[in-house]
Amino acid sequence: MPTSSTTSPRLHFVANSPVKGLAVAERRVEEPSACVICVHGALDRGGSFARLVRRLSGFDVIVYDRRGYQGSRDLAPVDLEHHIEDLEALIEREASRHDVILFGHSFGGVVTLGAASRHASEVRLVVNYESPMSWVLPREGFRPPLSDDAQAEAEGFFRRVMSDRAWERLSEAQRESRRLDGPALLIDLTAVRQRQVPCDLSTFPVPFTYIYGDGAQAPYYRSLALELATVNPAIETVEIKDADHAAHLRSSTALAEIIRERWESLCASA
Question: Taking the model in full, what pTM does it have?
């Protein structure tokens, strides 16, 4: 495995996106071990991976704003299939240079599974964090129907996932930016509620590690981890201590260590 440079420039947006209008940022290093493509979840953006990127020294890293979100908002919000196709375009470009690792946070992990299942010869490893897998294990409990008010749904979602206090700390411009991502959020949440299946996990062709935290939703994720082991014993699961759903922000060191360890283990066994 090549030795990588210890210099880690910051993420910067590039003009040569493989999908016209898709906002793509990258961090390149000398002699990378592989390229990690990070896919964000609902009501998020590629820039939220900045802390994780800094800790992934030795890897090229690609992040992007999914259609309908932030810098890619001019592209109409799309369904799961189109998100998978966008990621496929990034995989095909990066695979011509070096090995590809996919990291998906929350709904972004559903996208990585769909793309990796179609590009098993190009994607070497998939690592996801707390991706919703309602088609594997439905969540119990009542969830109110989604409304047609996309901006209100965006604010409510942010408050539930991050906290009321986090919402109140945002500037009005930041709040409005989140509200404008509401239409894309509604499509993501609809896909989850309809239990759309991105691939057959029982025959998933790529090494796959599923990570979750020990926060408030840990009982569900522990049950999901057991179910994943039943569906496919080759799937690895890891619980991170003192981690909530925003682990890419608050537990980025632990996430980076797992990605690196899984990659080194895979290379050693090749």
Answer: 0.95
